[in-house]
Amino acid sequence: MNKKKLFSQLPSVEEMLNNEKILNLLEEYPRSLIVDNIRKSIDNIRKRIISLKDDEINSFYIDYDKLIGNIIENSTNTYSLSLQKVINATGVVIHTNLGRSLLSDSIKEEVWETASRYSNLEYDLELGERGSRYSHLEDIIKKITGAESVLVVNNNAAAVLLVLSTLAKEKEVIVSRGELVEVGGSFRIPRVMEESGAILREVGATNKTHIKDYEEAINENTAALLKVHTSNYRILGFTKTVDIDELSKMGKKYNLPVIEDLGSGLFIDISKYRLNYEPTVLDSLKKGADIVTFSGDKILGGPQAGIIIGKKEYIEKMKKNQLTRALRVDKLTIAALEATFRLYLDEKKAIKEIPTLRMLTYTMEELDEKAEKLYKMIESENLDINLNLEEGYSQVGGGSMPLENIKTKVITIIPKKISVSELERRLRLCENHIIARVYDNKYVLDVRTIFEEQFETIVKEIVNSVK
Ligand SMILES: *Cc1c(COP(=O)(O)O)cnc(C)c1O
């Protein structure tokens, strides 16, 4: 045998395309992609032949089954979406890197139907003429918040941008220095303000701002007072912030709109569910804020969106702002948001069916039961690992409630044959992409953010990984 002979045994692309298995593959995947993968696979063998040493040539042969297997595997891989499902075992409920809030299963049919068929997105069925895409959200959001008016844009950053651009372009907006924070991953209040054309007027010190600081800063060029919920950090100790009701009174006195950027859109009193009290959207309105903005995909538990609610006179102006066209939401968002808000008509239903709320409000007994089940499933595999069921802490995430460490139950694994970091890497890269934390040199699975239907998959992947 010599190399020349081996080269002559290489199949041609044409031959491969006539192989029965490849013909089956052609029914599912685009021809161009398969041809590319055939070329690459043949080329790899060609390179392998070139690099063969003299004493290897005789024992070398072209494994056609393996070649075809490679082509099939590569074609499937290159065709799968880059954006794909993962299993979140981190215990961070609103995980910005893993897609923030999850939509409720109970709304998927309606959302899909609106998206895959024509709809009355911008059509008034009563009048038979052009309607507004925002009208679909107006009734339900007004009903749940009691607000006079509503507008929904791409995300909360866009909401703040639009509010400031509409109400305060080339004018001053007064904000406490302690609230000039970076929130929700690179959203910096001073930068957003700059983009909106509003002029930032900082008042107070980092740890303390008094109502008189705002009052002293008001002048003929002041357009609004802004309060930002510092959702991802807290100044502890010797502090003073001005509450929204105090600020609202000041706004009324000087006839200035008071804007509150709440970040997370909370609609239920979570102190009822063993979490620390956090101000809700309704609190803000009740305390007199003229405009409130919040995210759709933080605690609200809906799709990415920025929701602006409040006084009609201001929101009407925003609707006429040209920016609104650039920040507008898609029908998928509108359908998902309307359906999510509808769940809030019944708090029990919202807690049960919105995954974000469900995961945040598990009782310790429920977590115990879940953890016990997963633990037993892994234990019964008799693997070469140290397996434990322990107490741990989950996080709300999404820049919400940073100091809130919620007690949870975790499964910890120390593999004996490979390192903990190798286990983490294998499970992250496996077909089902399990994302978990490594803490205290243990692999930690927090059952809070894992769905029970994922247990079997997790066990299977652990079995494959610890070998
Ligand atoms: C998260 C957050 C934002 C940004 O919201 P996005 O929906 O991520 O654009 C703005 N303000 C506050 C206070 C936030 O917490």
TrEMBL record:
Residues 7-46 form the L-seryl-tRNA selenium transferase N-terminal domain. Its EC number is 2.9.1.1. Pathway: Aminoacyl-tRNA biosynthesis; selenocysteinyl-tRNA(Sec) biosynthesis; selenocysteinyl-tRNA(Sec) from L-seryl-tRNA(Sec) (bacterial route): step 1/1. The keyword Transferase applies. It is an enzyme of class 2 (transferase). One of its GO terms (cellular component) is cytoplasm. Its main location: cytoplasm. Keywords: Cytoplasm, Protein biosynthesis, Pyridoxal phosphate, Selenium, Transferase. SUPFAM superfamilies: PLP-dependent transferases. Its cofactor is pyridoxal 5'-phosphate. The keyword Transcription regulation does not apply. It catalyses: L-seryl-tRNA(Sec) + selenophosphate + H(+) = L-selenocysteinyl-tRNA(Sec) + phosphate. GO terms for biological process: conversion of seryl-tRNAsec to selenocys-tRNAsec; selenocysteine incorporation. It is found in: Cytoplasm. It comes from the Bacteria. One of its GO terms (molecular function) is L-seryl-tRNA(Sec) selenium transferase activity. NCBIfam families: selA. Belongs to the SelA family. PANTHER family: L-SERYL-TRNA(SEC) SELENIUM TRANSFERASE (PTHR32328). Converts seryl-tRNA(Sec) to selenocysteinyl-tRNA(Sec) required for selenoprotein biosynthesis. HAMAP family: SelA. This is L-seryl-tRNA(Sec) selenium transferase. It comes from Tepidibacter formicigenes DSM 15518.
